[in-house]
């Protein structure tokens, strides 16, 4: 048995569903899931259906709810529907806000912004060193990069999934832009070829792509084009998932799947520390958590069993997978 002590992991992209959809997850269950997966801090996304985080009042409400229930650190990304730019100045200064999330493609919630003039107004109005995060696929990503360059904004591309997107990010970085990208474990391990077997459990946003795209993701991860692992933890009730809701619970499978990559010699433990702690901390300027660490034995394998999840979403496309990196102890 060889115990490795990692810093408490950071996930900059989770959907903890409170307020508005606590039948799927809440701050208590979601942060317990985070701790169970080795995370000491998570950053919650703003697209709560019916209650998006697009005002300071909504933000403070979320903070109050989270602080009453949390099992680990919780930060927040601010949202926009294009009507709340007057609140950006206050949001950028808030210590619990780590970025602005813009949805340029259809996904859960009602914050979709496709109008290019409105997008430009938002980029111009967000006068902050805190990153603008985009859900931007295809040509929308190209336009977001153009706007970030024009207004000298820090840009983070969430859940990158296509070879063409890796190419765009690589080009932007080589051009000296302050741009970063994250990838999910499910895009690293699943492709369109898994859809027939997994059914609705394979329904994601962005959708699963081809083997060629997945190969490009691994290449981008290894050459530094992709900066970090983000789970895009998206819990749903079985009933909602059966109706085609996008996303999967990811907090309790991410470390094991990355440990599998170590076992298969695709990554090193140092890579995991960089991708799941150092880069998230640096890119989002996250304060130190000196007492947070997680003890992991990467030689120990285990079988993913979603019935043991702390998340309310007790299902996973990775059920039955043999993974590596058993958590022995965590301090948050």
TrEMBL record:
Domain Amidohydrolase-related per the UniProt entry, residue ranges: 6-288
Q: Which organism is it from?
A: Candidatus Yanofskybacteria bacterium RIFCSPLOWO2_01_FULL_49_25
This protein's record includes keyword NADP: no
Supply the PROSITE patterns for this chain.
DIHYDROOROTASE_1
Function text? Catalyzes the reversible cyclization of carbamoyl aspartate to dihydroorotate.
Give the superkingdom in one word. Answer: Bacteria
Quote a single Gene Ontology cellular component term.
cytoplasm
- Please provide the Gene Ontology terms (biological process) for this protein: purine nucleobase catabolic process
The UniProt keyword set, sorted, is: Hydrolase, Metal-binding
- Protein name, entry field: Amidohydrolase-related domain-containing protein
Family, similarity comment: Belongs to the metallo-dependent hydrolases superfamily. DHOase family. Class I DHOase subfamily.
Which Pfam families does the UniProt record give?
Amidohydro_1
Cofactor field: Zn(2+)
Gene3D superfamilies registered for this protein in UniProt: Metal-dependent hydrolases
**GO MF entries:** allantoinase activity; metal ion binding
């Amino acid at each position: 048995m060889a115990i490795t002590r990692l810093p408490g992991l950071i996930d900059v992209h989770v959907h903890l569903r409170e307020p508005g959809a606590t039948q799927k997850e809440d701050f208590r269950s979601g942060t317990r899931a985070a701790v169970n997966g080795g995370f000491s801090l998570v950053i919650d996304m703003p697209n709560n259906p019916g209650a998006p985080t697009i005002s300071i009042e909504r933000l403070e409400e979320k903070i109050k709810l989270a602080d009453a229930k949390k099992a680990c650190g919780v930060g927040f990304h601010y949202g926009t529907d294009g009507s709340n730019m007057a609140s950006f100045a206050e949001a950028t200064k808030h210590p619990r806000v780590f970025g602005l999330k813009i949805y340029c493609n259809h996904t859960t919630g009602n914050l979709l912004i496709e109008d290019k003039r409105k997008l430009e107004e938002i980029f111009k109005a967000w006068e902050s060193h805190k990153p603008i995060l985009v859900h931007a696929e295809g040509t929308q990503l190209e336009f977001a990069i153009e706007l970030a360059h024009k207004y000298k904004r820090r840009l983070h591309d969430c859940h990158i999934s296509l070879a063409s997107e890796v190419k765009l990010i690589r080009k932007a970085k080589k051009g000296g832009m302050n741009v970063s990208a994250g990838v999910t474990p499910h895009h690293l391990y699943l492709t369109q070829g898994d859809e027939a077997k997994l059914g609705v459990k394979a329904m994601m946003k962005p959708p699963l792509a081809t083997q060629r795209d997945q190969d490009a993701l691994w290449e981008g991860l290894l050459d530094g084009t992709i900066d970090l692992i983000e789970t895009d933890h998206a819990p749903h009730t079985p009933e909602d998932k059966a109706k085609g809701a996008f996303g999967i619970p990811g907090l309790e499978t991410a470390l094991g799947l990355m440990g599998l990559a170590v076992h298969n010699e695709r990554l090193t433990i140092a890579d995991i520390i960089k991708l799941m702690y150092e880069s998230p901390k640096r890119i989002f300027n996250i304060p130190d958590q000196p007492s947070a660490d997680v003890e992991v034995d990467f030689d120990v394998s285990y079988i993913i069993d979603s019935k043991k999840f702390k998340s309310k979403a007790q299902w996973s496309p990775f059920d039955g997978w043999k993974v590596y990196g058993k958590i022995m102890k965590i301090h948050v």
